[in-house]
From TrEMBL:
Keywords: ATP-binding, Kinase, Nucleotide-binding, Transferase
Pathway(s) it belongs to: Carbohydrate acid metabolism
Keyword field contains ATP-binding: yes
Family: Belongs to the gluconokinase GntK/GntV family.
Pfam families referenced in this protein's UniProt entry, alphabetically: AAA_33 (PF13671)
Organism lineage string: Bacteria, Pseudomonadati, Pseudomonadota, Alphaproteobacteria, Acetobacterales
Catalytic EC class: transferase
EC number, UniProt record: 2.7.1.12
Official protein name in the record: Gluconokinase
Reactions this protein catalyses: D-gluconate + ATP = 6-phospho-D-gluconate + ADP + H(+)
PANTHER family from the UniProt entry: GLUCONOKINASE-RELATED
Organism listed in the record: Gluconobacter albidus
Ranges in a coiled coil: none
Length: 183
């Protein structure tokens, strides 16, 4: 039997389209969880790292944290991608650290019905993961600035909180169950 198509998966799950930003500091598991969700639900996926201007990647690669000004054009591209997904009406998942409330507000601008999935992982586990991770521009030395910059989403923001310390398959199951329950 052939692989289930994306639309068949969506029907099978019975889920309405949602517009998710999987957020959190470097190494927390954004790409792992977001790609899993997009695959399981047949939703569109965008890796936020791929939208960074080359100068931002160069800066992070050489161990320098980004400033608000550096992040502004990147967040604008993230917002544009999200807006296109909402206009098209299909479910979508973006990875984006979205560390500050102001960044999340920029992503949600123009009334976009975005929901954030915040993956929370301890600093010790994050450091170990970033030391192990290969083939990625982000050095482990930037973890302290990532953690210092993070403004954990408040209860007044549209956020779903998940632990990044469970196995990714468990996190995915929890999220899908949450979406099924919430409708
Ligand atoms: N829940 C998890 N438990 C253990 N390791 C994980 C988990 N999620 C991700 N990882 C691993 O940690 C590293 C960082 O994950 P990644 O998805 O690239 O995070 P981010 O996109 O937030 O930087 C990768 O090597 C990944 O395989
Ligand atoms: O705003 C930032 O400082 C960056 O966007 C950063 O938060 C992001 O984490 C990097 O792009 C590294 O990529 P990973 O998060 O995939 O490690």
């Amino acid at each position: 039997m052939g692989a289930m198509t994306a639309s068949a998966a969506r029907v099978k799950m019975g889920l309405e389209p949602r517009f998710l930003v999987v957020m959190g500091v470097s190494g927390t598991g954004k790409t792992t969880i977001a790609t899993g969700l997009a695959t399981r639900l047949g939703w569109h996926f965008q890796e936020g790292d791929a939208l960074h201007p080359p100068a931002n990647v160069e800066k992070m690669s050489t161990g320098r944290p980004l400033t608000d000004a550096d992040r502004a054009p990147w967040l604008a591209l993230c917002h544009d991608w999200l807006r296109a997904q909402v206009e098209a009406g299909h479910g979508a998942v973006l990875t984006c650290s979205a560390l500050k409330r102001a960044y999340r507000e920029q992503l949600r601008a123009n009334g976009l019905p975005i929901e954030f999935v915040h993956i929370d992982t301890s600093a010790t586990e994050l450091a170990a993961r970033l030391e192990r991770r290969e083939g990625h521009f982000m050095p482990a030395s930037l973890l302290p600035s990532q953690l210092a910059t993070l403004e954990v989403p408040g209860d007044d923001e549209p956020v779903i909180r998940v632990s990044g310390e469970k196995h990714p398959d468990v996190v995915l199951e929890d999220l899908i169950r949450h979406f099924q329950t919430e409708g």
